């Protein structure tokens, strides 16, 4: 009985003269997610539901910029038809015993006021549904009617989306993606602000095996379902990690390793015209995530390093990972290179000068050049879209 998925957006509506740009981007991303036309009407997007409204609903509520969506039944601009359709929607929805009707009349030419429509529809549902009553304050079911220029839409379910801004409106960045819980969440939160993300993973074969890499690829698949597509750069890190182990003081190996990673990620970012790096660091979580460590790591790069998890604790990050679908992958027991060669007592407050002294024996330029040169690139499409190129 549901003909369309009605999509709402929030922050985009506050963009003033730039609103058409953001609306167009959201419509494009929604169209890519569901593979069918998306129609723009004032303040809403509409997608034909076809024969799989639940499937379409599930896909559009993953698109950044979508605040909520509802499967809706169409009705012609006729009060009797709207009443009949509303009764069907009420009967099909949640089996509540109390209800109310809310009407939004975007089409001011419709001959009945919003209040009149709500009263007429409510009375019709009461007359034809034994045992129910109206509760305008705490109803179990709310039947909503939106009257537009060409037709009316009736619905009772409102499914939340991720909100934020459409991917593709906020520039491009490189995510340092490990196999842990944090970095996928950091990537998700960055994409939520409209940023096109490419992932960079440091792979230390044979210290880390194929299952560790598979874990990262699976994380990319989950993230790409939100963005429409993602490129993974797999950077060979064995030579660099071995050199660090042989030539750097044990207590500074983590700091030096992170400095080498951001150097390589920045080089990839420049080649991909990305404007920032993204990490899953949270202040104080581990030795490499003190402000002193972050300052020492930042000292070797010139582009911004975004840390969207800075203010979150592990419980909050874990809950977000479960909500977006990355947690079960992240807890697989396959270590990444960040987990290997950890010193017994890492220095928690290194200075940039100490870190620079610690890496004096390294041929930094050659290590970075070789790693970037030999980087492998893998493309992941969006959900149910193998090979989809994305934004």
Tag the structure with descriptive keywords:
single chain; 391 residues; alpha/beta; 9-stranded mixed sheet; 6-stranded mixed sheet; 13 helices; elongated
Descriptive notes:
The chain has 391 residues and is of the alpha/beta class. 38% of the residues lie in helices and 20% in strands. It has helices spanning 19-34, 53-60, 79-92, 114-128, 182-191, 210-227, 238-247, 253-271, 291-298, 314-324, 327-330, 352-358, 364-373; strands at 4-8, 38-41, 44-48, 68-75, 98-105, 133-134, 141-147, 152-155, 159-160, 172-176, 196-203, 229-236, 276-278, 305-306, 376-381. α7 runs antiparallel to α8. Residues 383-391 have low confidence and may be disordered.
Q: Summed up, what is this model?
A:
The chain is α/β, with parallel strands linked by helices. Helices cover 38% and strands 20% of the residues.
Write the layout of secondary structure elements.
Elements: E1 4-8, H1 19-34, E2 38-41, E3 44-48, H2 53-60, E4 68-75, H3 79-92, E5 98-105, H4 114-128, E6 133-134, E7 141-147, E8 152-155, E9 159-160, E10 172-176, H5 182-191, E11 196-203, H6 210-227, E12 229-236, H7 238-247, H8 253-271, E13 276-278, H9 291-298, E14 305-306, H10 314-324, H11 327-330, H12 352-358, H13 364-373, E15 376-381
Helix pairs in contact: 3-4, 5-6, 5-10, 7-8, 8-9, 8-13
